Amino acid sequence: MEEFIYRIAISLPGFLLAIVCHEAAHAWMAYRFGDPTAKYLGRLSLNPVVHYDLVGTVIFPLIGAMMGGAMFGWAKPVPVDSRRFKNVRAGVFWVSFAGPLANIILTVLSSILLAVLLTKVAPDFAYYKIFSDMLQQSIYINVLLAVFNLIPFPPFDGSKMVSSLLDYNQARKYEELQRYSFVFIFILILTPVLGYIMAPAFWMSNVLMNFFIHLLASF
Questions:
Q1: What is the percentage of the chain residues whose pLDDT exceeds 90?
Q2: Which residues have a catalytic role annotated?
Q3: Which of 7, 114, 139, 180 is the most exposed place for a label (fewest CB within 10 A)?
Protein backbone atom coordinates (compact mmCIF):
# COMPACT_ATOMS: atom_id res chain seq x y z
CA MET A 1 0.00 0.00 0.00
CA GLU A 2 2.84 2.41 0.81
CA GLU A 3 4.46 1.70 -2.55
CA PHE A 4 1.13 2.28 -4.31
CA ILE A 5 0.59 5.61 -2.53
CA TYR A 6 4.15 6.70 -3.29
CA ARG A 7 3.70 5.80 -6.98
CA ILE A 8 0.56 7.95 -7.13
CA ALA A 9 2.29 10.82 -5.29
CA ILE A 10 5.21 10.98 -7.72
CA SER A 11 3.10 10.39 -10.83
CA LEU A 12 0.02 12.54 -10.21
CA PRO A 13 1.60 16.01 -10.79
CA GLY A 14 3.15 15.00 -14.11
CA PHE A 15 0.04 13.09 -15.19
CA LEU A 16 -2.41 15.92 -14.48
CA LEU A 17 -0.16 18.50 -16.12
CA ALA A 18 0.28 16.25 -19.15
CA ILE A 19 -3.40 15.61 -19.86
CA VAL A 20 -4.55 19.14 -18.96
CA CYS A 21 -1.93 20.83 -21.16
CA HIS A 22 -2.73 18.36 -23.94
CA GLU A 23 -6.41 19.33 -24.06
CA ALA A 24 -5.80 23.03 -23.36
CA ALA A 25 -3.37 23.08 -26.31
CA HIS A 26 -6.06 21.65 -28.59
CA ALA A 27 -8.47 24.34 -27.37
CA TRP A 28 -5.94 27.16 -27.75
CA MET A 29 -4.95 26.15 -31.26
CA ALA A 30 -8.59 25.78 -32.32
CA TYR A 31 -9.25 29.30 -31.04
CA ARG A 32 -6.23 30.60 -32.96
CA PHE A 33 -7.66 29.13 -36.16
CA GLY A 34 -11.07 30.70 -35.59
CA ASP A 35 -13.11 28.18 -33.58
CA PRO A 36 -14.13 29.58 -30.16
CA THR A 37 -16.24 26.52 -29.21
CA ALA A 38 -13.84 25.22 -26.56
CA LYS A 39 -13.24 28.72 -25.21
CA TYR A 40 -16.97 29.39 -24.80
CA LEU A 41 -17.35 26.07 -22.97
CA GLY A 42 -14.56 26.96 -20.53
CA ARG A 43 -12.13 24.40 -21.91
CA LEU A 44 -9.40 26.91 -22.78
CA SER A 45 -8.08 26.48 -19.25
CA LEU A 46 -5.38 24.74 -17.22
CA ASN A 47 -7.90 23.93 -14.49
CA PRO A 48 -8.00 20.10 -14.22
CA VAL A 49 -11.64 20.18 -13.13
CA VAL A 50 -12.92 21.35 -16.54
CA HIS A 51 -11.03 18.57 -18.32
CA TYR A 52 -11.96 15.80 -15.86
CA ASP A 53 -13.12 12.43 -17.20
CA LEU A 54 -14.07 9.74 -14.67
CA VAL A 55 -12.64 6.80 -16.60
CA GLY A 56 -9.63 8.45 -18.24
CA THR A 57 -8.58 10.75 -15.40
CA VAL A 58 -9.34 8.58 -12.37
CA ILE A 59 -10.13 4.90 -12.97
CA PHE A 60 -7.69 4.03 -15.77
CA PRO A 61 -4.67 5.81 -14.21
CA LEU A 62 -5.34 4.18 -10.82
CA ILE A 63 -5.46 0.75 -12.45
CA GLY A 64 -2.12 1.50 -14.10
CA ALA A 65 -0.62 2.54 -10.77
CA MET A 66 -2.03 -0.55 -9.01
CA MET A 67 -0.43 -2.78 -11.64
CA GLY A 68 2.94 -1.13 -11.04
CA GLY A 69 3.02 0.84 -14.27
CA ALA A 70 2.68 4.50 -15.19
CA MET A 71 -0.42 6.57 -14.58
CA PHE A 72 -1.67 6.57 -18.16
CA GLY A 73 -5.02 8.00 -19.18
CA TRP A 74 -6.79 10.89 -20.81
CA ALA A 75 -8.94 13.96 -20.20
CA LYS A 76 -12.32 14.83 -21.66
CA PRO A 77 -11.82 15.58 -25.38
CA VAL A 78 -12.05 19.23 -26.38
CA PRO A 79 -14.98 19.99 -28.73
CA VAL A 80 -13.78 21.36 -32.07
CA ASP A 81 -15.87 22.69 -34.95
CA SER A 82 -13.56 22.64 -37.98
CA ARG A 83 -16.19 24.46 -40.09
CA ARG A 84 -15.20 27.64 -38.27
CA PHE A 85 -11.52 27.38 -39.16
CA LYS A 86 -10.11 30.09 -41.41
CA ASN A 87 -8.05 27.41 -43.13
CA VAL A 88 -9.63 23.99 -42.61
CA ARG A 89 -6.72 21.76 -43.66
CA ALA A 90 -4.10 23.71 -41.71
CA GLY A 91 -6.50 24.08 -38.77
CA VAL A 92 -7.23 20.36 -38.49
CA PHE A 93 -3.52 19.52 -38.76
CA TRP A 94 -2.27 21.99 -36.16
CA VAL A 95 -5.16 21.56 -33.73
CA SER A 96 -4.56 17.80 -33.81
CA PHE A 97 -0.79 18.20 -33.42
CA ALA A 98 -1.10 20.78 -30.61
CA GLY A 99 -1.90 18.17 -27.95
CA PRO A 100 1.09 15.87 -28.59
CA LEU A 101 3.27 18.95 -29.12
CA ALA A 102 2.34 20.17 -25.62
CA ASN A 103 3.49 16.80 -24.25
CA ILE A 104 6.76 17.02 -26.20
CA ILE A 105 7.40 20.49 -24.75
CA LEU A 106 6.65 19.21 -21.24
CA THR A 107 9.09 16.35 -21.85
CA VAL A 108 11.83 18.83 -22.73
CA LEU A 109 11.05 21.06 -19.73
CA SER A 110 10.97 18.08 -17.35
CA SER A 111 14.30 16.87 -18.77
CA ILE A 112 15.87 20.28 -18.18
CA LEU A 113 14.57 20.44 -14.59
CA LEU A 114 15.79 16.91 -13.90
CA ALA A 115 19.21 17.78 -15.32
CA VAL A 116 19.35 20.86 -13.07
CA LEU A 117 18.42 18.73 -10.06
CA LEU A 118 21.03 16.06 -10.84
CA THR A 119 23.85 18.50 -11.53
CA LYS A 120 23.19 21.48 -9.29
CA VAL A 121 21.47 20.10 -6.20
CA ALA A 122 23.22 18.09 -3.49
CA PRO A 123 21.96 14.51 -3.11
CA ASP A 124 21.46 15.06 0.61
CA PHE A 125 18.72 17.61 -0.12
CA ALA A 126 15.65 16.38 1.78
CA TYR A 127 13.38 16.14 -1.29
CA TYR A 128 16.04 15.11 -3.79
CA LYS A 129 14.66 11.62 -4.46
CA ILE A 130 11.03 12.70 -4.50
CA PHE A 131 11.63 15.50 -7.03
CA SER A 132 13.86 13.24 -9.09
CA ASP A 133 11.19 10.51 -9.22
CA MET A 134 8.48 13.07 -10.04
CA LEU A 135 10.44 14.50 -12.96
CA GLN A 136 11.31 11.05 -14.28
CA GLN A 137 7.65 10.09 -14.17
CA SER A 138 6.72 13.36 -15.91
CA ILE A 139 9.15 12.56 -18.73
CA TYR A 140 7.85 9.00 -19.03
CA ILE A 141 4.16 9.99 -19.00
CA ASN A 142 4.56 12.84 -21.50
CA VAL A 143 6.59 10.72 -23.93
CA LEU A 144 3.97 7.99 -23.67
CA LEU A 145 1.07 10.41 -24.28
CA ALA A 146 2.81 12.20 -27.16
CA VAL A 147 3.75 9.06 -29.07
CA PHE A 148 0.51 7.20 -28.31
CA ASN A 149 -1.58 10.10 -29.61
CA LEU A 150 0.60 10.49 -32.71
CA ILE A 151 -0.18 6.93 -33.86
CA PRO A 152 -1.86 7.41 -37.26
CA PHE A 153 -4.91 5.26 -36.54
CA PRO A 154 -8.37 6.78 -35.94
CA PRO A 155 -9.38 8.31 -33.56
CA PHE A 156 -5.89 9.33 -32.35
CA ASP A 157 -4.55 12.81 -33.08
CA GLY A 158 -2.08 11.37 -35.56
CA SER A 159 -4.93 10.10 -37.74
CA LYS A 160 -6.50 13.57 -37.92
CA MET A 161 -3.16 14.99 -38.99
CA VAL A 162 -3.02 12.43 -41.80
CA SER A 163 -6.66 13.11 -42.78
CA SER A 164 -5.91 16.81 -43.20
CA LEU A 165 -3.42 15.90 -45.95
CA LEU A 166 -5.88 13.72 -47.91
CA ASP A 167 -8.69 14.68 -50.26
CA TYR A 168 -12.29 14.31 -49.08
CA ASN A 169 -12.94 10.77 -50.36
CA GLN A 170 -9.58 9.45 -49.18
CA ALA A 171 -10.11 11.02 -45.76
CA ARG A 172 -13.57 9.45 -45.38
CA LYS A 173 -12.25 5.99 -46.28
CA TYR A 174 -9.31 6.43 -43.94
CA GLU A 175 -11.54 7.52 -41.06
CA GLU A 176 -13.67 4.38 -41.51
CA LEU A 177 -10.81 2.52 -39.81
CA GLN A 178 -12.17 3.95 -36.56
CA ARG A 179 -14.66 1.08 -36.43
CA TYR A 180 -11.67 -1.15 -35.64
CA SER A 181 -10.21 1.20 -33.02
CA PHE A 182 -11.18 -1.00 -30.06
CA VAL A 183 -9.46 -4.03 -31.61
CA PHE A 184 -6.42 -1.91 -32.48
CA ILE A 185 -6.09 -0.52 -28.94
CA PHE A 186 -6.61 -4.01 -27.52
CA ILE A 187 -3.71 -5.29 -29.66
CA LEU A 188 -1.50 -2.35 -28.64
CA ILE A 189 -2.01 -2.90 -24.94
CA LEU A 190 -1.95 -6.70 -24.77
CA THR A 191 0.91 -7.39 -27.17
CA PRO A 192 4.52 -6.14 -27.41
CA VAL A 193 3.53 -3.80 -30.29
CA LEU A 194 3.23 -0.71 -28.11
CA GLY A 195 6.61 -1.46 -26.56
CA TYR A 196 8.22 -1.58 -30.01
CA ILE A 197 6.58 1.76 -30.89
CA MET A 198 7.61 3.42 -27.64
CA ALA A 199 11.19 2.10 -27.42
CA PRO A 200 12.74 4.65 -29.86
CA ALA A 201 10.87 7.51 -28.15
CA PHE A 202 12.10 6.52 -24.69
CA TRP A 203 15.61 6.15 -26.08
CA MET A 204 15.40 9.68 -27.52
CA SER A 205 14.14 11.06 -24.19
CA ASN A 206 17.16 9.50 -22.44
CA VAL A 207 19.49 11.00 -25.03
CA LEU A 208 17.84 14.39 -24.49
CA MET A 209 18.13 14.18 -20.72
CA ASN A 210 21.80 13.13 -20.91
CA PHE A 211 22.45 16.03 -23.28
CA PHE A 212 21.10 18.53 -20.74
CA ILE A 213 23.01 16.82 -17.92
CA HIS A 214 26.32 17.08 -19.79
CA LEU A 215 25.51 20.65 -20.85
CA LEU A 216 24.75 21.81 -17.31
CA ALA A 217 27.64 19.86 -15.80
CA SER A 218 30.05 21.94 -17.85
CA PHE A 219 28.94 25.17 -16.19
A1: 83
A2: 23
A3: 180
